[in-house]
Specification:
Layout (H helix, E strand, L loop, with lengths): L16 E4 L11 E6 L7 H10 L4 E6 L3 E2 L7 E2 L20 H19 L7 E6 L1 H12 L8 E5 L19 E5 L8 H10 L3 E5 L11 H14 L15
Parallel strand pairs: 2-3, 2-6, 6-7, 7-8, 8-9
Antiparallel strand pairs: 1-3, 4-5
Helix pairs in contact: 2-3
Length: 246
């Protein structure tokens, strides 16, 4: 089954997604999908604009809104199984259980939506997450079998959950790029060690600025674009109608 452009109807009904097609019209269907996951207390709206700005060739971005609205008068959505607060800061905690969202992303969005309905190989899929969305992206990649490895994971300020343990059959093959600030970051030395214990290939980038915000300059965006360009498939130089083998 040749891949085709996803539509919102390909995904679970209760999930809000925005599909950003490749920047240039083409008679061929896009080869790759980047699944974009926002952070705690946000929505997919600003990340849809970010996906359009990346303008990745031959690539569709699927920007997913988390399934759970924050309670009371708090704005935005979250990926957690529960609402927890950080003991030190009093702020909402990222590490609040991701069992339901992991199943939703791995089985509903990737398995049934992109693989079964749209014809994509997992090796053509990349997860891009910020904060709690990055934590979810890493959790999903860690939960896949060795044969289900993705093309990659980009996580900005999103480490693995504290209870994650390495798989018995070895490190996961999905390549990972994890990024964080020079200080006041969730990507601590201990968090990075846990990621390296879980995945075979891990690239780490430390920005000069404090905190784990989204990239704000070309210099900060460069390692992300380099990672993506190394893993996104392309038809350049391949005759139209050719069939990929293997």
């Amino acid at each position: 089954m040749a891949p085709r452009l996803p539509t919102p109807s390909d995904f679970p009904e209760h999930i809000s997604v925005t599909v950003v097609p490749p920047p240039r019209p083409s008679p061929d269907e896009p080869l790759n999908v980047v699944i974009v996951l926002h952070g705690l207390g946000d929505t997919n709206v600003p990340f849809t604009a970010f996906a359009r700005h990346m303008a990745l060739p031959e690539t569709t971005c699927v920007c997913v809104r988390a399934p759970h609205p924050l309670p009371l008068d708090l704005q935005g959505y979250h990926w957690g199984d529960d609402i927890l607060f950080d003991d030190g800061t009093g702020a909402l905690a990222m590490d609040a259980g991701l069992t339901r969202s992991t199943s939703l992303l791995r089985d509903g969005i990737i398995g049934k939506g992109l693989v079964e309905r749209c014809g994509y190989r997992r090796s053509h899929l990349i997860l891009f997450g910020f904060g709690q969305g990055g934590m979810l992206a890493m959790t999903v990649a860690a939960s896949l079998t060795q044969e289900e490895a993705l093309a990659g994971v980009v996580s900005i300020g999103g480490p693995l959950p504290s209870l994650t343990t390495p798989a018995a059959d070895g490190k996961r093959k999905t390549p990972v790029l994890i990024l964080g600030g020079s200080s006041a970051t969730a990507v601590t030395a201990a968090a990075t060690r846990k990621v390296r214990d879980t995945f075979e290939r891990v690239d780490e980038v430390r920005w000069r600025k404090p905190g784990d915000g989204m990239p704000g300059s070309r210099e900060e965006m460069q390692p992300i674009m380099r990672f993506l360009s190394e893993r996104l498939q392309s038809r350049r130089g391949v005759p139209r109608g050719a069939v990929q083998v293997g």
